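task queued by scheduler; priority normal; single chain, no ligands, no partner chains; default sampling; output format set to structure tokens
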Amino acid sequence: MALSWQTEFHRYRRYFVNIGQFYRQKKVRVYTEIVLSILTTTFFLVFAIKPTLLTITALIKEIKDKKMVTKKLEEKIDSLNIAQKEYLAIEGDLYLVDQALPKDSQIFVLIRQIEVLASKVGVSLGAVQYSSVNLKGDMNEDKLSAVDFKMMLRGDYQDLKKFLLSLANLRRIVQVKGFVFKTSKEEELNLNISAKAFFY
């Protein structure tokens, strides 16, 4: 037999009516307040404090990351300051780099330097031959290039030896590929040099 809600209501009515009397008991009141306090605290922990703690944790991590970035930037700034001081210390000598490795072949400047060196050492420069070279330079190329040249000098052994050593000490980067000493009909000593001069 199905029970109607009215009969059920009469059946459980006494429990609803007695809730007030039940709550008046000291034990029930204390436990109810404790349970409600725990539920309220849990609610606030989950919905209010947890997001705040997550935000705080994210901010602390962000602060640590930014401190690390700041430290690395300070190290880079220190390195740049040291590099700038070193650059300023050698700035006056930077023209030597252009002389050692010019931006184009500058073959005529090189020949003039060889002539001056020969006269300073006391040998006579017979002939200079050099490979074909683009005098204007190729503006699109950005690589190390070289021009090959050969020369013949006359003089005594010590002066020719001195010239050979001085050639290796020119400001311009010159690589001596080979040299040969020969005696001529006039009993003079000849020095044939094949070399290469670099430019950028």
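post-processing summary
- Residues 1-93 form one domain.
- The longest strand covers residues 145-155.
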